[in-house]
Design a protein that fits this description.
Length: 333
């Protein structure tokens, strides 16, 4: 028996009609109304041996899983991070599969597009270009940028998103340097990137893109010491997490050198409170946490979980690149 868990039907939009039809035909799924935490604790899924979910997955304790989901052997999560719910399931011996690799694709696409635009001075040039006279100023602004060929770009973190970004940038003939203590030298060589320090990246790169994993070790890692070292026309892009940035330090560095630019898809808190300087600084460009999967992109994740379910059903102990283990939770987002 399989069932869906989520806080509401909208949270299951990653499962397309075709995927739902396949689950009905292949796994006997009846209905698509998701069960919430209260339903689970009332015994509504006590016979389930596999769970499907996405955003809105209820968090349960190991004891609650043992009592109310005793037969569950696999969880298929059509979204990214499983940090909020996975550990008790894994401790109970259930396998947890996540579409985090698929969710990484649009984030990488967003980051690559912003990097390429930043290297040409797009953001502040666009903001300046408001009249015929201002257009000349905008032209002078972007003309001072190196463009993309041979430009040095720094990536912070080279997990699945960072690797996708590095792979995509290779065709643009950039010099890519990476900060990631967990990246093996052989993997860096295969990606065509050079490992280096945070200090070198911020001091020497035209554009810096953050893809660090979100954990206690990275909270507040990016501070004034680094931001103040950025060249006068450098750009910082954040699609990682806002908590990794000491935002007062970033504000200070941007105010001290207005030629610097920040493109922020994430902040801490999110959104910034009314009156925050990020709304008024002319060299800050905010987007509404849009880098991840949206629109039809979310269905890539549901399709991946259907694929994973088929593989699991055929070989319950088979290896999978989408499985999340307890060890992986220590370093991944």
């Amino acid at each position: 028996m399989i069932t869906f868990l989520a806080s509401g039907a909208q949270e299951l939009r990653a499962y397309s009609p075709a995927t739902l039809a396949a689950l009905r035909a292949e796994a006997g799924l009846r209905g698509t109304a998701p069960l919430g935490r209260a339903d689970i604790l009332a015994g509504a899924a006590v016979e389930a041996d596999a769970l499907f979910s996405s955003w809105g997955m209820p968090a349960l304790t190991e004891g609650e899983i043992a009592e109310h989901l005793p037969r569950v052997r696999a969880v298929f999560y059509a979204a990214g991070s499983v940090q909020a719910f996975a550990r008790p399931f894994i401790a109970r011996g259930a396998r947890v599969f996540s579409a985090w690799r698929e969710n990484a694709v649009p984030v990488a696409e967003y980051a690559v597009s912003q990097i390429l635009l930043a290297n040409k001075g797009f953001f502040q040039a666009c903001r300046r270009c408001r009249s015929a006279q201002a257009r000349e100023e905008a032209h002078r602004h972007f003309s001072a940028f190196p463009g993309n060929y041979g430009c040095r770009v720094g990536l912070l973190g080279c997990g699945v998103i960072g690797r996708l970004v590095a792979e995509s940038l290779r065709s643009h003939h950039l010099e890519v340097v990476v900060f990631d203590p967990f990246l093996p030298d052989s993997a860096a060589e295969a990606l065509g990137v050079r490992k280096t320090s945070l200090e070198e990246i911020f001091a020497t790169c035209q554009t810096v893109s953050n893809h660090l994993a979100n954990n206690d070790r990275t909270a507040g890692m990016l501070d004034y010491r680094l931001f103040s070292a950025m060249p006068s026309r450098a750009t910082f892009i954040n699609t990682g997490r806002g908590a990794q940035v000491v935002e007062a330090d970033l504000e200070r560095a941007l105010e001290e050198e207005p030629g610097r630019t920040a493109v922020l898809d994430v902040t801490w808190p999110e959104p910034p409170p009314d009156g925050h300087r990020f709304y008024s600084l002319p060299n800050v460009f905010l987007t509404p946490h849009m880098a991840g999967s949206s629109g039809n992109e979310v269905m890539r994740m549901g399709d991946a979980m259907l694929e994973e379910f088929r593989a699991w059903r055929a070989a319950p102990s088979g290896a999978s690149i989408r499985e999340v283990t307890a060890a992986m939770l220590e370093t991944m987002a």
